[in-house]
Amino acid sequence: MAYVIAEPCIDHMDQSCVAVCPVDCIAGDPADDRKFFIDPDGCIDCGSCEAACPNGAIYRAGDLPQAWTEYAWIDATWFRDPAAARVAVADAAASAA
Amino acid sequence: MDVTNATLLERVDLTDAVAHFRVRADDGPPGFRPGQYMALGLADGDRLVQRPYSAASRPDMDGDVEFLIRRVQGGALTPRLWDARPGARMRVGRPRGLFTLQPDDPRTHLFVATGTGIAPFVSMLETLLEAPRPPRSVVIHGVSHPGELGYRASLEGWAYGWPVSYEPTISRPADPASQGWAGLTGRAEAVVDRVCDEHGLDPADSVAYLCGNPEMIATVGRILAARGFPAEAIKSEHYWPAGSPEVRTSA
């Protein structure tokens, strides 16, 4: 089970997670994205990112708070269809505002 | 696509389940800082199985990097690592991690490790001891049996010729594998207070690095905080997420 980056990352994109991920499975384009994304196919469940995130944005997929379960889908989708993931992030951010 | 970029040079066994692995990167030194880790990977069909391990060697060892690894039965990578022969092709990922030394830090360095968590401290000490006037270091290493004391000879050597105190402790002294052990007994967290007292560690002039079992890190962190260590002087590297099976550097 992979880790997932949830709502607290939106518009923060601190990058500490990127600096510690040993398998480079965290991605995102600060020019186009509002958060980072974890590739569930590459994640090895080491938990380094969760410990490093200053915003408390990263959870094991199975431990995501109910309100943020959609971020598991959003993270996985970004690696196949970034545009669809960006729309989903914008929707999620708007509904949380 | 060939994603390998390194070669396994040798495996040196400490016990049936703990060994040093020396790996040579094709493109020279990976450029890590002491304390950082790298993903080691072996191909499994068309997929790459990777796990991160802290480098134990000096950063400037040509292209060679040494790791201290525990074999986990049923793990995704370590059984394959033990099956690999010298010359096997591997992948070494980019150095990662923020668990590194502060440059020119004159404070006494307290290093507390469990198991293979001693690895980054060996790399750190190699670097610290290159300074003209290295800071004082105190190393607590907790393992089950004496045979698991990775880098014991190096640490004992440093304790004779350098400002290094080496305090290994054995948590299973009654086991036959610990026969003849005359040193400290108990888990690392059980000896921290005593070692701090014996070495007169001043919380205002010390920095602690904790590595390995997250439960040890949590407990030792509380002990040091109670002794007056400020939060910024307690740095840690968890080898697997707290409350979960051992994954990070052992599977």
Structure in a nutshell:
Chain A has 97 residues and is of the alpha+beta class. Chain A has helices at 16-20, 48-52, 70-78, 82-96, and strands at residues 3-5, 26-27, 37-38, 58-60. The radius of gyration of chain A is 12 Å and the shape is globular.
Describe the SSE topology.
The complex is a heterodimer of chains A (97) and B (251).
Chain A: E1 3-5, H1 16-20, E2 26-27, E3 37-38, H2 48-52, E4 58-60, H3 70-78, H4 82-96
Antiparallel strand pairs in A: 1-4, 2-3
Helix pairs in contact in A: 3-4
Chain B: E1 6-13, E2 18-25, E3 37-44, E4 47-54, E5 64-70, H1 78-83, E6 89-92, E7 108-114, H2 119-128, E8 137-143, H3 152-161, E9 164-170, E10 184-185, H4 188-198, E11 206-212, H5 214-227, E12 234-238
Parallel strand pairs in B: 7-8, 7-11, 8-9, 9-10, 11-12
Antiparallel strand pairs in B: 1-2, 1-6, 2-5, 3-4, 3-6
Helix pairs in contact in B: 4-5
